[in-house]
Design brief:
9 helices; two-stranded antiparallel sheet; two-stranded antiparallel ribbon; mainly alpha; about 5% strand
């Protein structure tokens, strides 16, 4: 755990915020390089802002009673962690399609481009989660398990559950689910990049929506599985967490994009 990257007098930079910034910059650069377009800056900036706002809003709603009811001023402290990725993704999708409609842009080719880059930036965000200590995993005796120092999110939760005392210098060992998910996201990014290059090389036979569908299904499966390893408080919808419930919806939506892509390719081959 390394929450403060720089803490020198007036200069105070959280590692979590720095990781998010690096992820955004890398995605921005990659999208411009792959597309060859410099006119997407307004869209990318809008998606960044809506992603942060949506992620924070979803996290605050899910953790209102536990974290914010008594301290509403903490709502704006995004630099201290506390973002729910699906909330940001949902709001960003709405902003994206609104932008495409206003600009009269074809949505699917741009969506494929964005979905190729998103896992890279998201991976850096998960590394930031690890440095802050949020989004931790279940208590485990695994050699991969890690401990977090006192006053970390894991330590506070274990203190509340009576598993550690106020004098305990560290939490009990927990799975570093943040790093597990970061690794899975990098693998997903590598697969999508390879597919993007292959589809782009096809030229006129391009299958619009294929990468969007692959991303939505791929990440949804990763997140659904990862939720079983999470140890931080999770709001539930029936037998599943909120994120798992959204993941199921994302698989359905992603599958629809894949079917649309397949039908478009099949239709071109038969013409």
């Amino acid at each position: 755990m390394f929450p403060d990257l720089i803490d020198i007098g007036f200069l105070h930079l959280k590692t979590y915020g720095a990781c998010m910034a690096v992820g955004f910059i890398l995605c921005w650069h990659l999208i411009e390089r792959l597309s060859g377009r410099k006119d997407l800056s307004n869209l990318l900036l809008s998606l960044m802002v809506s992603g942060i706002v949506g992620s924070r809003a979803a996290y605050v709603i899910e953790h209102w009673s536990a974290e914010f009811a008594r301290n509403p001023e903490r709502i704006v402290r995004v630099d201290q962690g506390g973002l729910m990725f699906y909330g940001g993704l949902i709001l960003a999708i709405a902003v994206f399609f609104t932008w495409c409609a206003l600009k009269k842009e074809r949505a699917l080719p741009i969506a494929d481009l964005l979905c190729t880059a998103i896992p890279l930036g998201h991976a850096f965000g998960r590394v930031g989660c690890f440095f802050y200590g949020c989004c931790y995993g279940k208590i485990s005796a695994s050699p991969l398990a890690v401990t977090f120092p006192s006053h970390s999110p894991a330590w506070y939760e274990q203190l509340h559950e009576g598993l550690v005392t106020a004098a305990s210098p560290r939490s009990l060992p927990v799975l570093p689910t943040q790093l597990f998910e970061a690794a899975a996201l990098l693998a997903l990014f590598a697969a999508l990049m390879a597919l993007y290059r292959r589809v782009s090389a096809a030229g006129a036979r391009r299958r619009d929506g294929l990468l969007t569908g692959c991303y939505l299904v791929g990440y949804a499966l990763v997140r659904f599985a990862m939720e079983f390893l999470r140890g931080d408080p999770r709001a539930a919808v029936g037998p599943f967490s909120i994120s798992q419930t959204i993941s199921i919806g994302m698989v359905v939506l992603g599958s629809a994009f894949l079917v649309h892509s397949w039908r478009g390719e099949h239709g071109r081959k038969t013409n």
